[in-house]
Amino acid sequence: MERKWWHEKVAYQIYPKSFYDTNGDGIGDLRGIIEKLPYLKELGIDIIWISPCYCSPLADQGYDISDYYNIDPRFGTMEDMDELIAEGKKYDIGIVMDLVVNHCSDEHEWFKKACEDPDGKYGKYFYIEDMKDGKVPCNWRSYFGGSVWEPLPGHPDKCYLHLFHKKQPDLNWENPEVREDIYTMINWWLEKGLAGFRIDAIINIKKALPWKDYPVDRPDGMSKAQNMLADAVGIGDFLGEMRDRCFKVYDAFSVGEVFNEKPEELPDFIGSDGYFSSMYDFGANIWGDSDKGWYDRTPISPDNYRDCSFAGQAKSEGVGFFSNIIENHDEPRGVSRYLPESDVNDTSKKALATMLFMLKGLPFIYQGQEIGMENVKFRSIDEVDDISTLDEYQVALNAGLSQEEALKVISLYSRDNARTPFQWTAGKNAGFTEGTPWLQLNPNYTEINLESQRNDPDSVYQYYRRLIALRKDPQYKETVVYGATTPLWTDRKNLMAFTRSSEGQTLLVAANFQSEPQTIVLDAPCKKVVLGNYPDVQANGTEVTLKGYQTVVLEL
């Protein structure tokens, strides 16, 4: 595998609306990110991915873009963005923006012109179809519920396609003029000095045409959009073109949000000449999903998490680099998802963090993860902002759950869990804003916050710093970044263990995901304890006893 500049890096996702507010309007902003660059450098971050801050009506929190060439005034100005890119370079931190090009906003100039003249140039930028006898072209369900077809404003006999929110019309990638406009925009940003892009929902750009119905999978008479994606062929033509015209020209970092790829396509996506530098391993995130909805999801256990992680390692070995996550802006908090609720504490949080960082691949931290932020408990559906959560609440009610039961379900999986403001201090509004926060704070900010952890050597924050430092340590970097992963004791309950090995060095990584101790027997004596979440390691020759939620990195 050809070595790339980004392989040794550590990435950090910022959800700008909830990171840090400098002007008191209750919404985080670009100046807030600029102010916190020294903090991110202290943590050890090399790449920052910023969720969308382009102009947007925020129907889907910025993933509905009305102007790709401008910053939304809520977040600041283009001058602020230019300054952020320049300041980032001073700290050796690359800025990565979100690239949302499966769809735009219905308030984008292109869509407005399409509504004025559906048969003209911009009508062909979207999927606009005639409704025959009031019937839509197919029975696909949008990701946020309801039909993917919506009447075209001003034209009751026509409809347009939106796989996501009705204010997010899908762009027609089959049209070469659309692609040209997108590539021009991407290169405009890369010319500004961006390090690259995180590419949103990109698998959706290729539709299975012509339109057809798929088997109904819910009482609403519709079929999930993923059924269509399984039939879609030829996405590589678009992605290869985008790579050659944009990312390759600038040696830019690109990471794809890719679900539903076909197994044989993985080398095409992240191989030596892949469409992207990397893509996220969502194996654990989608484990237990149900076509019926969140209410029918199977909760994930530590063993399920282990098996998903090892499956991702096996898939990517010798192919390319996955980007590893336990959470992001679309997921609940990882510590509340992968750890039993009764066992969520600093020790278990460190164990989970160790697994994330010691697997092969590029580690992504989501803001607040490094201080162990947890899910928030909703007391009422009125506290929810996220459109996906509101839809799933209704799905649960329709399935016969009580309001209380439905609220419990969405509290487990809501995207708002990750979107509550960053907990900087135990003071007013967690130090996030002088104003009124746009979304409720997690009440536990008085206990879980950066200020209380920054100077505590035993804190979750300081443990994350040690994990990042280990990845960059010249003594271990070769093994941690490039070493092979070999799973161990996969039949043992609540134990996740593996070796990372390179020429002349082997590291054993193990975590006991239960309160009761477990003993493991090593093949070779321990040469050195490299890292752990307890002050000591109980060893007797080649026998090591791991206490409750103890994790170790041992050099053998």
- Parts with pLDDT < 50 across at least 5 consecutive residues: none
- Span between termini: 26 Å
Reported for the largest beta sheet, the result is: 8 strands, parallel, barrel
Task: Give the overall silhouette.
Answer: globular
Indicate the mean pLDDT. Answer: 97
How much of the sequence is in beta strands? 15-25%
Work out the radius of gyration: 24 Å
Polypeptide structure, described:
The chain is an alpha/beta fold. The protein has 18 helices and 23 strands. An 8-stranded parallel β-barrel has the order 1-2-5-10-12-13-14-15. It has a 5-stranded antiparallel beta sheet with strand order 16-17-18-23-20. Strand 17 (495-502) and strand 18 (505-512) form a beta hairpin. Helix 12 packs parallel to helix 17 and helix 13 packs antiparallel against helix 14 (403-413). The protein is globular and about 80 Å long. The mean pLDDT is 97.
What does this entry show, briefly?
29% of the residues lie in helices and 18% in strands. The protein has 556 residues and is an alpha/beta fold.
Which properties best describe this structure?
556 residues, alpha/beta, eight-stranded parallel barrel, five-stranded antiparallel β-sheet, globular
Architecture blueprint of SSEs:
Layout: E1 11-14, H1 30-35, H2 37-43, E2 47-50, E3 54-55, E4 67-71, H3 78-90, E5 94-99, H4 109-116, E6 128-130, E7 140-141, E8 149-152, E9 155-161, H5 176-192, E10 196-199, E11 223-224, H6 225-229, H7 235-250, E12 253-256, H8 266-270, E13 278-280, H9 283-286, H10 302-316, E14 321-324, H11 334-338, H12 346-358, E15 362-366, H13 387-398, H14 403-413, H15 416-419, H16 450-453, H17 460-472, H18 477-482, E16 484-488, E17 495-502, E18 505-512, E19 518-521, E20 528-532, E21 538-540, E22 543-546, E23 551-555
Parallel strand pairs: 1-2, 1-15, 2-5, 5-10, 7-11, 10-12, 12-13, 13-14, 14-15
Antiparallel strand pairs: 3-4, 6-9, 8-9, 16-17, 17-18, 18-23, 19-22, 20-23, 21-22
Helix pairs in contact: 5-7, 12-17, 13-14
